[in-house]
Amino acid sequence: MRILGIDPGLRLTGFGLIEQTGQKLAYVASGVVKSGEGSLPARLGILFGGINEVIATYRPDTCAVEIVFVNVNPQSTLLLGQARGAAICAAVSNDLTVAEYTALQIKQAVVGHGKAAKTQVQEMVKRLLALPIAPTADAADALACAITHAHGSRLGAQSTAGYRLKGGRLV
């Protein structure tokens, strides 16, 4: 199964794809979609188009997206939520199911504790996928999200327990 992980952001949205065969995970691709400058609708359109392009290129079977945390600045949280929405819409418009995980769940599944630093996540992603170098922070977070989904860890499994599929999305 090919899993697309997404770390949403308005300026940079990280993506990471892994292939799961039984217990084995293999790296497929990772990177970022840059929205650049301009109006909010234009930037969201770039993110939507970029994720669509990733999906068309790599043909994932499912998608895992990091849940937005509530920031100190409410405006930043709203903007991040809109970027996340654009990414989810791209996945759903391509008939992918979307699982959602908190940063705590992702760090717990990949590093072993929920308060891990970004560098720890990068290093564990590098090790788990046998990469020669650690991916960038945004790509590593996206790959970690995909790894969390692949592991179906106890924390990850709880995030979808009791939900049903509606329009390609867990509700």
What's this model, at a glance?
This protein is an alpha/beta fold and 171 residues long. The protein has a single domain (2-170), classed as Nucleotidyltransferase, domain 5 (2-Layer Sandwich), CATH 3.30.420.
Structure description:
The two termini are 22 Å apart. The model is unreliable at 153-165 (pLDDT under 50). The chain has helices at residues 40-58, 74-93, 103-110, 118-128, 137-151, 154-160, and strands spanning 2-7, 12-21, 24-34, 62-66, 97-101, 165-166, 169-170. It has a single domain (2-170), classed as 2-Layer Sandwich (Nucleotidyltransferase, domain 5). The protein has 171 residues and is an alpha/beta fold. Helix 1 runs parallel beside helix 2 (74-93), helix 3 packs across helix 5 (137-151) and helix 4 (118-128) packs across helix 5. Helices cover 47% and strands 24% of the residues. Strands 3-2-1-4-5 form a 5-stranded mixed beta sheet. It has a two-stranded antiparallel sheet with strand order 6-7. It is globular and about 40 Å long. The relative contact order is 0.20.
- Number of strand elements: 7
- State the domain count: 1
State the major sheet. Answer: 5 strands, mixed
Instruction: Give, in spatial order, the strands making up the sheet with the most strands.
Output: 3-2-1-4-5
Residue runs with pLDDT of under 50 for 5 or more positions: 153-165
Structural class of the helix and strand makeup? Answer: alpha/beta
Q: What count of helical segments does DSSP give?
A: 6
Q: Gyration radius, to the nearest Å?
A: 15 Å
User: Span from first to last CA?
Assistant: 22 Å
CATH hierarchy class name: Alpha Beta
Instruction: Give average pLDDT, whole number.
Output: 89
The percent range for strand residues is 15-25%
CATH topology: Nucleotidyltransferase, domain 5
SSE order in H/E notation?
EEEHEHEHHHHEE
GO molecular function: crossover junction DNA endonuclease activity; DNA binding; magnesium ion binding
Family: Belongs to the RuvC family.
EC number: 3.1.21.10
Cofactor: Mg(2+)
